[in-house]
Fold:
Amino acid sequence: MTAMPPPQDPALNVTTAGVPLRVLVSVRNLAEAQVAAQAGVGFIDLKEPADGALGGLPPSQIAAIVAQLRRIAPQTPVTATIGDWPAAALEVVTRQVERVAAAGPDHVKVGLEPGEDGRRLTHRLVALHRAGLPVVPVLLADRGVDEVQLQILLAERLPAVMLDTADKRSGSLLQRLGDDLLAPLLQRIRTSGALAGLAGALRREDLPRLNALAPDFAGFRSAVCAGDRRLGLDAGRLSALLTALATAPEPEPEPEPEPVPVPVQPAALTSAAA
Structure:
């Protein structure tokens, strides 16, 4: 198979090949956004954790935070969620994507449940992407990944595709989906030209596995809060996470396979065959 060039996203201004794992931190207000910016995270994600997995902030609040971040951290990409909406509410989701995009973040995250309604919403997100809206689909993989949805998304050159969980109380994404499933999914996403992101109750203890899986970025909220994810961001926990990531050893390369001996025919048989 011909190797694909490193995925690139002009809005993020990055090339992902050989770049260490970058941290996306979800924040709920300007004060938390400032903490994340000062810590030097890779992405700042605007959401309301008290309103669900992808709870959204009001577009007016998103616009105010984005304006401040452009001033204090102009190189840091900003994402924002539209809120948790049923997949069947196509027109509501469309309006929310448009409203959040108008508030100025680099990317707008939209959750996708598996199933028929989710597939219809997937087609709608592709249409919004083609219309120029900066949509990032978030596949909610509590019960696995919908292969049809994934194929629809990978046929487009989206800026990024994320895997996440809807229920943050039942274990992390890495506890629900093994590395043997996640690794090929990440490879398929990157081969499509998109950045590949993981999230879903990820913990500091997950860093070795995350480094081995090597997504382009990983999203954290629970791990950087003092207690419940609905409580405030903790600067000390965030600093400890980033320090642990910076000092984590590089994953061990896979050993080269042992050469397989090639059987040699006896000389007499070789002569007879000739």
Remarks:
- DSSP finds ten helices and ten strands in the chain.
- The first helix runs from residue 30 to 39.
